[in-house]
């Protein structure tokens, strides 16, 4: 499980600036992917040796100071419940405020690492002025400038040293890990109960990790499956209603650990923005995805209804054209029996290896039939392709111009691989690499 780091602090202290600094987002790539919804609030960070999920709790526009306090408390509560580590950001320019003190009092009482950070310390001058903050009485204060990248590296060294990277990998090669994700109320727990069978209620909970996620093992036709965070899915409805945007975090966490993600949609609502966020993340994480349109029993149908809904899904999730779609009723059990068969199909492809010989035969054919466009007037040459991994199937193509291959050409090659090797339900990764680099 990747740890979650939450950035908390008043508006305008520089949370987003720090977030972007840590994420190091490359804009061009993003724009190339049609339809991927980028939520600026969440990101998986892989730039450092140890990956983590970063959450920016900001973006509020409070009108009154009362509201400000309330929202800061909400943010902090979220961070306390969900995060593994908290970056509490204050502002050297704005000085120490009562709201800061209030939150520090809350954070002091929790049993998680908290880093107290003063941002906008752009130089020695502000460094001297930051002395004020020592009256908070916290052990260590980090001064940084998110904008000018001052002190951020040192901060991250300390942060990563503290993070609870539990390497108790429950990696069991045989088992298929399934995450059930979706907005509140789409029917996740009903579906989970369906998949497990009501009688076998959490028969054998695998006791958890730091975040007490309880997974459930079950078998179908003697094949083992793991349903990720079963307890979380069942628990949620009963606890305090979560802020919509934070419910995404649960999804992220489950997706991270899954092989196959069941993206549950509510047939009554159609596709919503929240759905596209969750699916976008599953896509970026490279997981096998299946759309499960639930509550199909509530829809008044004629013979074009299913087609129309399918179209809506394809239009909203352009980046997941390969994901199968199932129309079910978790409540009545209609077609839920098909889910595991579909999971098996996706999983099989997700783990599939193709031989280098066969791969290159198809690759050469594809290149012959449709040459890569020139890159700034220079010819793009390919040397060979090889599969470097599974889950999802990942391919490296060696070329003279790794930077000069257009996204549409990449998609073309990917589609040829899909057709030739029957990768109809899994994401694929394609990496272009210069010939001199021998790593991986
Ligand atoms: N001088 C200076 N300005 C900074 C620094 N970091 C951020 N800022 C500026 O502070 C302002 C607020 O930064 P944001 O990152 O949007 O702040 P935020 O905390 O995310 O604000 P909300 O989204 O409203 O919660 C912007 O104008 C930034 O350019 C810094 O290190 N030094
Ligand atoms: N008509 C109909 N109702 C359903 C179906 N599946 C679930 N429901 C109802 O939808 C409501 C929400 O179902 P849950 O399973 O609790 O949804 P959830 O996604 O786990 O909800 P959260 O815990 O809020 O995330 C309940 O009242 C269910 O009875 C279905 O297939 N058809």
UniProtKB/TrEMBL annotation:
Swiss-Prot/TrEMBL keywords: GTP-binding, Hydrolase, Nucleotide-binding, Repeat, Ribosome biogenesis
Q: What is this protein called?
A: GTPase Der
Could you cite one Gene Ontology molecular function of this protein? ribosome binding
In terms of InterPro entries, this protein maps to: G_ENGA (IPR031166), GTP-bd (IPR006073), GTPase_Der (IPR016484), KH_dom-like (IPR032859), KH_dom-like_a/b (IPR015946), P-loop_NTPase (IPR027417), Small_GTP-bd (IPR005225)
A Pfam family hit:
MMR_HSR1
- Residues at which GTP 1 binds: 9-16, 56-60, 119-122
SUPFAM superfamilies on file: P-loop containing nucleoside triphosphate hydrolases
User: Does the record bear Nuclease in its keywords?
Assistant: no
| Role according to the record | GTPase that plays an essential role in the late steps of ribosome biogenesis.
User: Which PANTHER family does the record match to this protein?
Assistant: GTPASE DER
* One annotated GO biological process: ribosome biogenesis
According to its UniProt entry, this protein's organism is Geomonas paludis
